[in-house]
Amino acid sequence: MIMEHRIVRYGDLQPCKTAFIDAHTPGSDQKENFTIIGGGVSESPDQHVHIGLPHGFNIGAAGQPPKCRNSLHDHHTAEAFFVLKGRWRFFWGRYGDAGEVVLEEGDIFNIPTGIFRGFENIGTDYGMIMAILGGDDAGGGVMWAPQVIEDAADHGLVLGDDGKLYDTKRQQKLPKGVAPMPVMTDDDLAKRPEPTTAQVLPNHVARYWDMMALADRMPVQVIGERGLLKDKPGFEVSFITRGSATEARKSNPYPTVLMPMRGHWKVRWDAARGLDAGEATLAPGDTMSVPEHTPHSVVPSMTGEASLYHVVATGDPAGHTWTG
């Protein structure tokens, strides 16, 4: 795969409007889901995968108009979001009322596993959030709150225990040997923690302008053992600004993903692993995967505000993040 094929431009993203079980449920039926890197967790064969190469994590995105929400769900591995566009409310708990936080553009939320979470666009325009999911298989799918599965069935969508969606409005039926996905038992639900907002925010949310100040001279590790949000989810997330960017070439033993938040960024790479040396310019919303062991640099190419998220796998198993 040549380097051009490892860059996904924001304007080239291909949405899927039938990715998940709540695709027909009023209030959630206008959302668009994107799988940028990795297989993702979509339950629909309609989902387009832009870069299918394993990275040790998945990169996806959700685009939603105002007042559209993503229903309560959970993953077996880590899930972190940063807001690219708009203003978003995240909420969690069995019924979504245990706690909540509002994120502005650039803020990042390393959502604890083991709790149901959902989110909605509370801004005034189409919004976009970028997602990082731990593991190459993204934890084996999505676990939905029981009421989400029940509401979806009332609007024609049934999730089979094979992880696939079946639309009864289109006369689709569960194949022989496939049963409806069972809802979680009361005993399983009772074991799930219900952390409050005060318990979650200090260790799981980092604000954009705080990171801009901290990364004025050196990149800041946001998620990782030494991060602002200390965790070992199977990947590390760093934050780079104009003041902390450098022309010095660096490489990693795992693929590196670059995701500009603000400004335009020039990426240069040396010849390595069958690739010719080259350069490319990234804009906000673009996603680039630099191959492992490829020396590269990334610096702002224009004046003005500039910030970028840097994601790389660590080789650790993508474990739980909620320990409270």
Automatic annotation (TrEMBL):
<feature type="domain" description="Cupin type-2">
    <location>
        <begin position="66"/>
        <end position="129"/>
    </location>
</feature>
<dbReference type="InterPro" id="IPR014710">
    <property type="entry name" value="RmlC-like_jellyroll"/>
</dbReference>
<protein>
    <submittedName>
        <fullName>Cupin domain protein</fullName>
    </submittedName>
</protein>
<dbReference type="InterPro" id="IPR011051">
    <property type="entry name" value="RmlC_Cupin_sf"/>
</dbReference>
<dbReference type="Pfam" id="PF07883">
    <property type="entry name" value="Cupin_2"/>
</dbReference>
<dbReference type="InterPro" id="IPR013096">
    <property type="entry name" value="Cupin_2"/>
</dbReference>
